[in-house]
């Protein structure tokens, strides 16, 4: 089978490269000529561990190709995957213009019977809409069948997830499409769930909404734990040991970010509004997460009252480790708040710094190693749990900072270890550790 992929973002490029690795001939299409040339030269436009190596390998073996010409991309394709973005609009709904543009281009350029598979995350009913667009714009007498095949890839482990996923969901209205896609995915040996198209579309949103709910739930529990003297790590372990609940996504912190959970939860809530259904639970999940992402800043304000003139270190900028993605990252809200307070901000991230530079320019101090960010800092904020950050010992904070005040948004360190050190260590949902009385921080600030 000849495979074409429309869109070379995280989903499209990883899907295309991995299908080429399986042995298929894959053509990846993107309208950005510079991006296409970059990929032809063997460079990945996104950071994903192992992706560049697989790109070069399969390009060299003539299984993976790149083009910005829609005719070249679609004319010989047996299966075309739509994997372009569906960014959030102002009202929270998904912007479908890119998906619809791809559907039109496919209709105008295919010259043989083809299966069009939507991997983009789209609201329920979108594939029916795409089918109408394709039929309206077809230039040749060909049969184009539609399917929904949502992705469940995690940034940072997307290649592993492709080959070791829990399930593959295929939504289609006729057996030929399902059988063809089952054959396509057979080499992966992953369980396949077959549904109708609308159920497949809903599965994607429901999965992300449920995971986001678990995150917001444990963060609410963490906030209560701080007030009653409980430890959220112990609580999470206790409830997670129940097989009905499980341990995954029960790690307290400063909320979720990235390209999926924030966008998809709001899109599902907006979809519910469109059908006159008030999704109370999901609205609360979103509200909790919005509050949680500014929690470190609020803790700092409780300590100092004002942060004006304070030198602060922000350790970690990406929304999670092993990616350079800063979309909806907690670091952005923290930096904005610190800038408004007129703090002096030094930032560190092993991968994502260049994206932050595009936003903030020379208003921040960018450090290549975390130790440089910590030098003479009044406060250190742990925002992303990179290994490079987690492995910093308390002794380094004590040695480099004016005074070791550490606000850990990812619970990277052990509370008992913090107690043994002369540090102030505040985390999420756990006992605070103060090197000196909290009142003295505010006294210093007001003096």
Secondary structure elements and their pairing?
Elements: E1 2-6, H1 10-22, E2 25-29, H2 33-40, H3 51-60, E3 64-67, H4 70-74, E4 79-82, H5 97-109, E5 114-118, H6 126-137, E6 144-148, H7 158-163, E7 168-172, H8 175-185, E8 192-195, H9 197-228, H10 232-240, H11 261-274, H12 280-292, H13 295-304, E9 311-315, H14 330-340, E10 344-348, H15 353-360, E11 365-367, H16 370-374, E12 379-382, H17 387-390, H18 394-400, E13 405-408, H19 415-420, E14 424-426, H20 438-446
Parallel strand pairs: 1-2, 1-4, 2-3, 4-5, 5-6, 7-8, 9-10, 9-12, 10-11, 12-13, 13-14
Antiparallel strand pairs: 6-7
Report on the structure:
It is a single chain. Helix 9 (197-228) crosses helix 11. The protein has 447 residues and is an alpha/beta fold. The mean pLDDT is 96. It has 20 helices and 14 strands. The chain is elongated, with a radius of gyration of 24 Å. The termini are far apart.
């Amino acid at each position: 089978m000849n495979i074409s992929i429309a869109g070379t973002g995280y989903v499209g490029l990883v899907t295309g490269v991995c299908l080429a690795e399986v042995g298929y001939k894959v053509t990846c299409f993107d309208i950005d000529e510079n991006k296409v040339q970059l990929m032809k030269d063997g460079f990945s436009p996104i950071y994903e561990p192992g992706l560049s190596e697989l790109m070069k390998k399969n390009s060299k073996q003539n299984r993976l190709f790149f083009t910005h010409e829609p005719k070249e991309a679609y004319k010989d394709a047996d299966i075309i995957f739509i994997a372009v973005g569906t960014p959030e609009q102002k009202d929270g709904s998904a912007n479908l213009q890119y998906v619809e543009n791809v559907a039109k281009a496919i209709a105008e350029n295919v010259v043989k019977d083809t299966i069009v598979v939507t991997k983009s995350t789209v609201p329920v009913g979108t594939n029916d809409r795409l089918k109408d667009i394709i039929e309206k714009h077809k230039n040749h007498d060909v049969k184009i069948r539609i399917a929904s095949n949502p992705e469940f890839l995690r940034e940072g482990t997307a290649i592993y997830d492709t080959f070791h996923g829990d399930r593959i969901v295929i939504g289609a209205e006729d057996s030929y499409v399902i059988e063809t896609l089952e054959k396509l995915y057979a080499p992966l040996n992953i369980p396949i769930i077959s549904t109708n198209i609308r159920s497949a579309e809903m599965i994607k949103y429901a999965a992300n909404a449920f995971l986001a709910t678990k995150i917001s739930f444990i963060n609410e529990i963490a906030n209560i734990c701080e007030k009653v003297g409980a430890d959220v790590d112990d609580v999470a372990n206790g409830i997670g040991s129940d097989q009905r609940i499980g341990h995954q996504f029960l790690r307290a912190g400063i909320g979720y970010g990235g390209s999926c959970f924030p966008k998809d939860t709001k899109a599902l809530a907006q979809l519910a509004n469109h059908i006159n259904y008030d999704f109370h639970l999901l609205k609360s999940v979103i509200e909790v997460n919005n509050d949680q992402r500014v929690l470190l800043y609020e803790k700092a304000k409780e300590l100092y009252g004002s942060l004006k003139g304070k030198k602060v270190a922000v350790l970690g900028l990406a929304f999670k480790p092993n990616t350079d993605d800063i979309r909806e990252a907690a670091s952005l809200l923290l930096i904005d708040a610190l800038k408004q307070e007129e703090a002096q901000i030094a930032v560190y991230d092993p991968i994502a710094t260049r994206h932050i530079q595009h936003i903030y320019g020379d208003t921040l101090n960018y450090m290549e190693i975390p130790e440089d960010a910590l030098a003479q800092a009044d406060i250190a904020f742990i925002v992303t749990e990179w290994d490079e950050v987690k492995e910093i010992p308390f002794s380094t904070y004590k040695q480099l900072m004016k005074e070791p005040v550490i606000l850990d948004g990812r619970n990277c360190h052990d509370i008992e270890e913090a107690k043994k050190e002369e540090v102030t260590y505040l985390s999420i949902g756990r006992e605070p550790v103060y090197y000196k009385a909290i009142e003295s921080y505010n006294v210093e600030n007001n003096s």
